[in-house]
Structures are given as C-alpha cells and as structure tokens.
Amino acid sequence: MANKKMDPVALIRKEIESLEHKVEQLRDRLMADAHKAMDKAKAQTERARKKLKEEQTRLGELQKKAKASMDAKVHKQLDRAHGAVDAAKELELDAKALMIMAKDQITELKGDYQRAKALAKAAQDAAKNFDKTAKPAAKKAPVKKAAVKKAPAKKAPAKAATAKKAPAKKAAAKKAPAKAKAASKTPPAS
Predict the structure, then answer these.
(1) In 10 A of CB 111, how many CB atoms?
(2) Nearest to 46 by CA among 83, 96, 82, 90
(3) CA neighbours within 13 Å on the CB side: how many for 90?
(4) d(CA 85, CA 19)
(5) How far, in Å, CA of 78 to CA of 74, rounded?
(6) Fewest 10 Å CB contacts: which of 20, 82, 91, 105?
(7) Are 55 and 81 in contact (CB under 8 A)?
(8) Compositional bias (Basic residues) spans (predicted)?
(9) pLDDT of residue 29
(10) Are 157 and 169 in contact (CB under 8 A)?
C-alpha cells in the first residue's frame, strides 16, 4: 500500500485544500492587521478631537482675556493658541485619512478573499469534472496495456535465443526443471 501511487486528481484536490487553508490563514491575519490599524486610527482621531476641543476652549478663554486687557503678552498667547488649534485640526485630518485607508484595505482584502475562494471552487469543480471524464478512460486503459504486454513477452525469448547463446542455455535450464516435475507427476508407462 505504501508504494501505491495517488490519483493525480486526489493530489490536485489535496493541494487545493492546502492552498485554501493558507489563503484562509492569510486572510485572517491581514483582516486582523487591518482591524488593528483601524482601531489605532480611531484612537488617534479621538485623541485629536479631544486635543482640538481643549485648544478651542483655551482659545476662547484667551480671547475673553484679550478683550479685557489687550497687551502684548495676551497677543502672543493668542497667536500660539491659533497655531495649536490649526495643528490639532491637521492631526484630526491625518487620523481621518488613516481611517479611510484602513477601511479601503479591509474592502480590498474582502475582495481578494472572494476572488481566491472563487478560484479554489473553480479548481475543485475542474478536478471533479476531470475525475468524471477520467474514470471511463481509466477502465479501458488496463485492458489495452495487458494486450500490449503479452505480445512482446512471447517474442522476447525467440529474439534472445538468436542473439545470444548464453540466454538460450539459461532458458533451457529453467525449462528443464519444469519438464522434470511434469515427468515425475505422470505415471510411468509400462
């Protein structure tokens, strides 16, 4: 049984199953990475919103102070606050862009997975169809091979005997014990 060759269709099916398993593992890993990236982007967006809110609150307070006393120190603080608000807005925009990219990556991964799954199914269907068409041919093939093998087997000893004398002697030596056995089984003629 160990020397028995596997059916090529079975080998193809086994390879398809192995590839499907690998695709499934890769998809899971990539999906997990994409979800992590999305969670990270969400967290960054939340931090950016919080910072923006803090800076806007601070800016409002400074503007109130500025109205009360317009001195140079307040103007400097006001300028810094405006700069901080702008930086917070940019940070929020960056976080939103990261979230959009993560969503796009998840969509692409889902599409790739669906294509890989469809290809695997098509390969499996092709293997089944091949199996169906190969069975009738497989039944006929052994009959043809047996007929072909018998004809050369009969001709081989005659060629060997004419080509070399030594093989003919060996063939005669092999036939002699068979004749001796046949003679010993037949009753002696008297």
Answers:
(1) 10
(2) 96
(3) 6
(4) 52
(5) 6
(6) 82
(7) yes
(8) 137-157, 166-178
(9) 93
(10) no
Report the candidate in 127, 112, 134 with the shortest Cα–Cα distance to residue 31: 112
Q: Tokens for 51?
A: 């910072």
pTM of the shown model: 0.40
Query: Residue 132: CB partners within 8 Å, gap ≥ 6?
Result: none
Instruction: Copy the structure tokens of residue 160.
Output: 């060997």
- Cβ–Cβ < 8 Å for 30, 109: yes
Cα-Cα-Cα-Cα dihedral sign, residues 133, 134, 139, 145: positive
Contact 98, 37 (CB under 8 A): yes
3-state class (DSSP) for residue 187: coil
Q: Please return the burial class of 41, using the count of CB atoms within 10 Å of its CB with bins 0-12, 13-18 and 19+.
A: buried
- Alpha-carbon span 22 to 142, nearest angstrom: 38
Position with higher pLDDT, 114 vs 155: 114
